[in-house]
Design brief:
heterodimer, A: 115 residues, mainly beta, seven-stranded mixed sheet, four-stranded antiparallel sheet, 52% strand, B: 113 residues, six-stranded mixed sheet, 11 strands, 0% helix, globular
């Protein structure tokens, strides 16, 4: 079974802080993704990575950055947290397209509150 | 511009009956469609998928139908069980690197005992 582990289930930070959200997967997947989920908006893609040190912007990258130094780990960074970044953050991983159509597998999410 | 739409925010169904969840899309480049189920405080769980070369895929109680001409897909759950109560998201993917997904806004399914 694929295991995607997010380091924190709940996190409370203050406006202006630099926030790190960590995600680790154990299935040697090339692709990793960060989403945020907000009521009525579904899941929106922030950033994704298809290889170590590679990253691409998703639909809502503003205010975020990412780091992928190792294949199994993908970090989301809020450079200067703001209250509109209060949300549920979800990490996912998948095999590459060359492996055929593959679903993404999700972690349990981090509920982040910015005060 | 929402490329994947789930127009029903909620649906209630009696236990044992059929649940039908609907999803519409606008992007003609989408060629892979998925349904995810999400319980509160958990991540989405992959349920079933369908490629655009098919019009139906079945897995136990779950069947996904794809109507490409109408750009519409639906998820049928038969028979519905109380444990099926969750938020259901449809998602779509187009040919391209990394296979990123575009999600709908979700439908809360409640199965009444």
């Amino acid at each position: 079974d694929v295991k995607v582990t997010q380091s924190s289930r709940y996190l409370v930070k203050r406006t202006g802080e630099k926030v790190f959200l960590e995600c680790v997967q154990d299935m040697d997947h090339e692709n990793m993704f960060w989403y945020r989920q907000d009521p009525g908006l579904g899941l929106r893609l922030i950033y994704f990575s298809y290889d170590v040190k590679m990253k691409e912007k998703g639909d809502i990258p503003e205010g975020y950055s990412v780091s992928r130094e190792k294949k199994e780990r993908f970090s989301l960074i809020l450079e200067s947290a703001s209250t509109n970044q209060t949300s549920m953050y979800l990490c996912a991983s998948s095999l590459p397209r060359g492996g055929g159509n593959q679903p993404q597998h999700f972690g349990d999410g981090t509920r982040l509150s910015i005060l | 511009d929402q490329q994947v739409k789930q127009n029903s925010p909620s649906l209630s169904v009696q236990e044992g009956r059929i649940s039908i969840l609907n999803c519409d899309y606008t992007n003609s480049m989408f060629d892979y469609f998925l349904w995810y189920k999400k319980y509160p405080a958990e991540g989405p769980t992959f349920l079933i998928s369908i490629s655009s070369i098919k019009d139906k895929n079945e897995d136990g109680r779950f069947t996904v139908f794809l109507n490409k001409s109408a750009k519409h897909l639906s998820l049928h759950i038969v028979p519905s069980q109380p444990g099926d109560s969750a938020v259901y998201f449809c998602a779509a993917s187009a040919k391209g690197s990394a296979r990123q997904l575009t999600f709908g806004s979700g439908t809360q399914l409640t199965v009444l005992p």
